[in-house]
Amino acid sequence: MKQMGTALRDDVGDVGYVDGGAAADGAADLLMGGVQAAGELGLSRSEFARAVQLGIVRAGPRTLAGAARYARAELDRVRSESGPPGALRERVGTVAGAEAAAEVVGVGPSRFTRLARCGHVTPVGYRINRYRAVVWLYLTAELRSFAARDPGMLRGTAPPADRELMAAKADLRPRKWRGRHVGLLLRRTADPWERAAVLASVLPEDELLEAVPDPAERIVLAALGPPPPYGHPQAPAAAAVATELLKAGPPDEIHWYRTSLDFALAGARGQSKARGQSKSTGERGPT
User: Which long-range contacts (CB under 8 A, 24 or more apart) does 55-59 make?
Assistant: First the structure.
């Protein structure tokens, strides 16, 4: 099981340089912590974390302690592809809550809430306020793009599909956010066990026990599972609310993740078996 994958982590790290092997080969000055990398890109720490989450900035080799580090060459690439000064900040800028988001698209808060609950816009993150209520975060650039692309949604009566959803008191925001969150995590790794761990992380415990009856495999998946997203609250009461957002809810959503996990596990087990056979025959298995 030791070769089933390497840990997937989402933190942005602290200021500092890698040591050990990196220092020995003279590469220490090419890697930096998240705070310094954010400063070099002209971003706040939260903006930098969002850039990492969205895959705009790719993390480099980690320290032995597991802290994320970023290569200067990667920062140079991001700067060269970002366009005019301030363009990167515009890509990762967010607004919190329906009132702020409604102002961006030019509608009232109640209409925006309906648009979000019906799945027309997808949150990129969340916060839990002091009343333990979820405050959704939206990318400002995406809101502007939505307003320009679908101006008809900003006025007039709601379409029949939206009226049905609202009559059923549906709220697609948690599900849409989970889909986005999982998709971004899967894009950041090709390791089959890490990919399976991402999918396993959104299943409720009882569903995971059924999907993965082998305790040893569950230990591996737990070890490789992604940490909570940036901004996840630390206070127990707020964390309990936020943790609910990380788990699939509707039966059809759970079924989708279970089916995806089954497929991912089949590939991961096959790779582990092939590696085991290659060790016994001296041949290299698939990677």
Answer: 55/184, 55/187, 55/188, 56/88, 56/91, 56/92, 58/188
